[in-house]
Amino acid sequence: MTHSRTTEIDWEALGSALEREAELHLPALEAATDWLHGLLGTVEADEGGTVTRILDIGSGPGVISCLLARRFTGAEVVAVDQAPGLLRRTHDRAVAQGVGDRVTAERADLPDDLPGLGSAELIWTSHAVHHLGDQQAALDALAARLRPGGLLAVAERGLTPRFLPRDIGTGRPGLQARLDAAMEESFSEMRADLPGSVSTVEDWPAMLSGAGLIPTGSRTFLVDHPAPLGAAGREHLHHSLTRLRGMLATHLAEEDLTTLDALVDPDAPTGILWRPDAFYLTATTVHTARACAR
């Protein structure tokens, strides 16, 4: 939901928040892994192969890594991240879910360490490529790690979360639209500040094709938690809005900053932790492409 400049993100400190967000998205992620399983089932039927190794690039706390291990029961899943604390969370989650023998955690700095990760029949990466300066070069490097007939799945963009009505009874109506605009400005600044930043038309199927792959479709998966939102969802929104308040201070009018202060007040009945009208609606788009069979 939030972005800041990559050099300023303490991913390990965000471990609990990342887990909470991924767990809110579980139904959509499960549907996505089912779809990937179907696509790779076609590969197996055509090529006589099987999925034995999966790379989860930018795995965070390992929620998706464990989902992939449970869906692809014959595969080793390698969770790849730069933050040791997140990799420890991945290990603990895998053990708790009974897939610790097939989920391994490997620290790597992207994109430099990609060549040393080996190859796989499936590579999944979620909201990681946009943190790399040259997104096309990153996709090229990921494509090079695919085994013949293998699949690259890239989760990027989708729809920004919605979580409150247009008029929330405090401040000027339309806060979320202004937050969206401010976040886009912040995102553009983050991209421009990345080492080796390259401006790219973010047509993901075309970029996958440019990496030498054959696009196999894009699908968008809905996450819908209607009001009244449960405690985990409210905690996620409170954390996200608190981060936004700090990140977007220079992008928002004083009136909107005051509204955000009211929303993150843990004791106010109009704060996000207590509002009966809070909900969580978003969508994640997954783009897929296949390596040529050789």
Q: How many angstroms does the end-to-end distance come to?
A: 40 Å
Name the shape in a single word.
globular
The total beta strand count reads 8
Q: What value does the average pLDDT take?
A: 91
Assign a percent range to the helix content: 25-40%
Count of helical stretches: 9
Q: Strand-residue fraction? A: 15-25%
The profile of the biggest β sheet is:
8 strands, mixed
Provide the gyration radius in Å. Answer: 20 Å
SSE topology sketch:
Blueprint: H1 15-24, H2 26-47, E1 53-57, H3 63-71, E2 76-81, H4 84-96, E3 103-107, E4 120-126, H5 135-143, E5 146-155, E6 159-162, H6 175-193, H7 204-210, E7 214-225, H8 231-247, H9 254-264, E8 280-290
Parallel strand pairs: 1-2, 1-4, 2-3, 4-5
Antiparallel strand pairs: 5-8, 6-8, 7-8
Please summarize what this structure is:
By secondary structure, this protein is an alpha/beta fold. The chain is globular and about 60 Å long.
Q: Which keywords apply here?
A:
8-stranded mixed beta sheet; 294 residues; alpha/beta
Structure overview:
The chain has 294 residues and is α/β, with parallel strands linked by helices. The chain contains nine helices and eight strands. The protein has helices at residues 15-24, 26-47, 63-71, 84-96, 135-143, 175-193, 204-210, 231-247, 254-264, and strands at residues 53-57, 76-81, 103-107, 120-126, 146-155, 159-162, 214-225, 280-290. Strands 1, 2, 3, 4, 5, 6, 7 and 8 form an eight-stranded mixed beta sheet that branches. β1 (53-57), α3 and β2 form a beta-alpha-beta unit. The protein is globular, with a radius of gyration of 20 Å. The termini are far apart. Mean pLDDT is 91; it is low at 1-7 and 43-48.
